[in-house]
Amino acid sequence: MNRKDFYFKQKVTEAELDAAFDDVELALRALVTDLDFDGISYGLDVIQQPSPNLTVQVAAGGAYDQAGRRITIATTQNLDLAVDESALNTAVVTPGNERWLSIFLEFDRALSVPRVDGNSVTVYFHRSDSFVLNVASGGEATIGAATRPPLRGDQLLLADVRLVNGQTTIVTANISTTRRELRTYDSSLLTSGTAEYAYETARTRTVRIPFGAVVGTASYAPQFADGTYGFCGKIVTDTGKVYLDLTSYLRTGATLTGLSARVKPGAARASTNRMALQVFKKSGALVASQTQLGSTTYDDASATEQDIAIVGLTQVAAGESYFAVLTAGSTATANPDFFFHFTLTFADPGPRNY
């Protein structure tokens, strides 16, 4: 990293102070670009609205652009696709025609905290990392012949959306993630037989996902216990559920083969009163339009630490979304259930985006 050596009684200029921060920022960006680590890191899924219209939801998430700049979206965004980034109507005019829209994520700066400098000029003291969602519109053409807008060298593609004449709603079937720019390594780095890159080739992968990656509709919280349970989460509502989004791990062509959850039930329970694990393919909102994959599995009816495992899956990912559901036992309010991590197993076609 380039450095500045400020010295005693130096009269520092604005440009010199700015340059010191720039050096740090450029060093961080260089680390990302040197490792070819650009792309979508997590989240940022594009999904239909619960009540479909010509807008879509872009989920919270994070990414690094081609210049190594970190871009995060903290909350779900509603994006209008009725007009493009140039404020032009995107409707398909001619019957029998189609048009592709592309949703791009762009790095931006949000200026705030205005102050007046010594020259009576207003400057903005805070220049926070921000983002812009851009909608690019492709040309209208007969169905099957329309082309998608080209990828951009300084923005990341989140999804493409196909429109036809007379369309008034956008549903999951209209949303394509085949070109979605996930975090990726440069395939030119992959050398057959080279040990340090062997994990990037096609193979079965096992990924351990910490409990902190889940979201919940029930009460759960990371906490330190007395050393017996360690750093973990717990569910303190009877049959409360937590959800784990698996989509970012299962790119197109990957085959989901198994999933397990490391848990410690709060009590020994029987039958369907036990902790349960399920995995679903989804085409809408988090728990809407879902198809269960495999069977529901339960804990072993004891209160000992254990793995609840779903095995024998053969689901090939083709751009859909996937999530797991861990359900607490029937007496979790009185006897909280603990969970530690999930383990996902899948066959990756390689080269991998992680």
- The sequence of SSEs as H and E is HEEEEEEEEEEEEEEEEEEEEEEE
CATH class of the largest domain: Mainly Beta
Q: Can you say what the CATH homologous superfamily of the largest domain is? A: Galactose-binding domain-like
Number of strands: 23
Instruction: Assign the structural class, choosing from mainly alpha, mainly beta, alpha/beta, alpha+beta, or little secondary structure.
Output: mainly beta
**Are there runs of 5+ residues with pLDDT below 50, and where?**
185-201, 218-230
Count of distinct structural domains: 2
The end-to-end span amounts to 25 Å
Estimate the helix proportion, in percent: under 10%
| Cα Rg | 24 Å
CATH topology of the largest domain: Jelly Rolls
Gross CATH architecture of the largest domain = Sandwich
Largest sheet report: 7 strands, antiparallel
Beta-strand proportion: 35-45%
Number of helices: 1
Q: What overall form do the CA principal axes indicate?
A: globular
Report what the structure shows.
The protein has 354 residues and is mainly beta. It has one helix at residues 14-34; strands at 39-43, 46-48, 55-58, 61-64, 70-73, 77-80, 97-116, 122-137, 141-142, 155-164, 175-176, 203-210, 215-216, 223-224, 231-235, 241-245, 255-264, 276-282, 290-298, 306-310, 315-316, 321-327, 337-348. It folds into 2 domains: 35-184, no CATH class; 198-348, Galactose-binding domain-like (Jelly Rolls, Sandwich), CATH 2.60.120.260. The chain contains 1 helix and 23 strands. Strands 12, 14, 15, 17, 20, 21 and 23 form a 7-stranded antiparallel beta sheet that branches. Strands 7, 8, 9, 10 and 11 form a 5-stranded antiparallel beta sheet that branches. A 5-stranded antiparallel beta sheet has the order 13-16-22-18-19, with no helix packed on it. It is globular, with a radius of gyration of 24 Å. Mean pLDDT is 83; it is low at 185-201 and 218-230.
